[in-house]
Amino acid sequence: MTVSDTRPAPNTFAALRDQLTEAAVAFAGAPGAAGDILAGIVDDVDRALSERLEIFPVCHHSPSSGLAMVRRLREKQPSVIYLELCEDMRPLLDELRNCRLPVALQAFATDTADFPPEWAPLSVVAPITESSAEYQAIAYALDTPDVELVLVDRSTDHVFQWAPKADDAPPPETPADGEQPEDDGLHGAAVGIEIGDLRPRFAELEEHLLHHGKVRHWSEWWDQYVEQPLADADYDTYRQVMVMIGSLFRRLRRGSTVEDEDRERYIWTRMREHLAANDIDPARALYVCGAAHAASPVEQFGLESDAPFEITPRSATSWHYGLIPSSHSAIEAQFGLAGGAVSIAAATWAKGLRRGKLQPFQLAGQPGAKKRANKLPLLPTEPETEVADQLSGFLSRPPVLDPLDEAELLEWSVDIVRLARRNGYLASTADAIAIFETSILLAGLRNRARPTPYDFQDAAVTCIEKDRVPGRRDVRRLCEILLGGDRIGQVGYAALPPLARDVLDRLEPLGLDLSKRTLQRALLDLKANPDLRPCSDLLWLLRRLLPQDALRPIMGSRGLGETSIQESWDIGLGKHQRSLVELGYEGVSIEQVLEQRLRRAVAAPDATAAVALGAVEDALVYLRSVRLAGELGNRAVELLAAERTVDDAPVVLRRIRLLLNYFRSTEDGLPPWCERFVTAGYAHYCTLLPTAFADEETGPPQVAAMLGFLFGMENLALSLGCDHTQLELAVLQSHPEAPAKVALLWAARFQLGMLTMAQLRDRCDEMLANPLVLPTVPQYVSGFVQAIDPAPALKPFVVELLSKAFGTLPDTVLLPWLPKLITTLKDQAGDLIPGLVREAGRTFPGALPAVDAFEPPWSVEFSTVATPMAAAPGGPVTELLAAHPAACDALAGLLGIEGGWQEAGPAGNRELTDLLDRFPATAAALAAQLGVSAARS
């Protein structure tokens, strides 16, 4: 069968070149840049269409490109298709038949060999939709015998090799308007690879086109002036127009085009190598690429070129490949399209198929797709014909205006009102009529006879959305749903990596369809059905590794030593299939992935002791691996000894306390690494304590945590060989200036016995009496509150201090620093306030009538004035004291009475006897406890 020649005859576009040059001279007044650009565009079209290897220019997710591809494939029936797509993604294409489009081809790498570490993880995605020209070429090649599909673009490794290394790269463009649905993050932060990025990177040109086209954003301009005219155009017209647009945008693009040119050199080098190695006739091949790359100026362009290009080897990065779900909104968000643009393109594609009576190509066995026969009909032999200049006619004639389809517009208007009412809007039949008429009015104002979906969207927003959005979706989003919706793809079970399949298999006893994108409730009665325990363990593992909203426990918890009896889960794995697929790139089982992540976390250059202790806890909670916990614990000891700051001291204290309590409850007791961690931490924090007290960057919470570690674990540390003198010297060498740290130092000295309660009380009374110190009282109080952790005996004293402040200070002093006191306590000691409140509840009366008679414990003063007596009275009490002289002396010392029983004799302890006389009931009770008669003589 002979295929018609698609190459133009020589000088085919000479008349158009002269016409554009004359127009440029008339416009600018003299030959110049404008004439060179217009003439260059014609030269690019002539050069691309004259190439022996037929070039098929496309635009990404363009319905007109898809329609033209279907027509050309059925006409030409090529035996080799060269596709502009990363060459190392070729094995993924065979798995598309197990997926429901749209999906994205992904290359993923966690180890960034030869790349900046801040780029990790590396991810490249290439979205595929059913209406895209590349999918039609893929479906044709994979389901047609004796057809070879070759990917010729740079590898994913070269994508990052050629990427600029500067950190100030501009962020990707975002849509000008339109709300992006919640699924726009399906591609995450991956680098997007698209075929045919036809958007001008020249802001002034784009603004000019939007202004004179009377449209709001680029997607609408492209749909009106390119998609609609080319939807029914013949193949020659389509090719010439697409190459022209690609050449125009390429010539007007600002900035460096080195990366694009290197891609084109790479592609042509690969295609020439493949043609020569397999002895392929170029007439039987088709090269599918972006329209901008079809107008390439590189010297390697074309099969006749012999210009060399050295392809650099790949880096040592290990790449993983897979398929992830995609959606129309994800594609729009990643490539800077307007909201709903891809959905409208899909609707235009379906309409073009019906109007042209075309049968698209579909991979056999693909789920969610209609069964179609891809068998190509036999075409009659066509004589060779020369390509005529279709571009001149296309540029000179006005666009054909489609007549108004009243039935279609009326259906849209009625359906959007019905959909709006379901979403809380007060829409009526009058609004449907208003939308219908407004759509026609807007189309007329924009020089369109037939309202486009964008006109209909604007009319619906104007007529329905009055002052607020009553529900989750606005009217513009409802219009997108009406016109096709945000189609979301899904990767089939057979195309998932082994880890993802293993997860689905292990969760099968739950009896849920985990492929659904909706939340599903799972109830696990682990006492009645112990067989569900492995499912529970796996769910907690997935909870640890996947995004938080992928699995949400409603009932039940998992921690050190915890075992749930019943659990309830909201499971949304279908919605987070991408994250599950990416876990499959890291290992073959979920347990292996977590173990690898824990090892990497503690081995990272920025790892800390707190991170290592968290890894130990995760190893025990999720993996129940004592061996791994010991290995990570040894690393925690090394990290703690190497730290030079105490920023993580609160986290370290909380986690080591939890681990110590857990290990003490086990049969084996404390492991060796825990003992070494306590001894190393005791010496480490003693060494850094004076510096932490004096350092302004170290806050009171960190100092309080250090003291909590030293005092709370002192007994264990001393039993393991530590020296208590080291702590005393560290406290004596500390000289803080910040009020909160001063309070912490006083508390530490009180805990060590260097400061008595009376001395501490006197210092605080002097502080409250000094008007110069009053503004800093809240900070002192904050320090004392944080000192409750290392010195729990201070709780009553803190209650006393606050009570004295509120009871003695005048309102003129109290009210100004009261807000500061509250905010200070909330920010620095919020977790300790509940314990302080409980202590206050034990101190103060619990009933209102008892308030008037309440006398604070700290206000009771015992009189120590001795009353002279001739002789000490005798009796059982005296006999009791005489029988126990050591106890008598100790009691007298506690009461502040000097002298001893044996030294003073019976007449020398009159003060103690007088005290017993003042409290006869107490003496009788004490005598009764000691077995002595309660009567006094």
UniProtKB/TrEMBL annotation:
One Pfam family cited in the UniProt record for this chain: DUF5682
Region Disordered: start-end pairs: 162-187
Highest taxon listed in the record's lineage: Bacteria
Protein name: Uncharacterized protein
Record lineage: Bacteria, Bacillati, Actinomycetota, Actinomycetes, Mycobacteriales
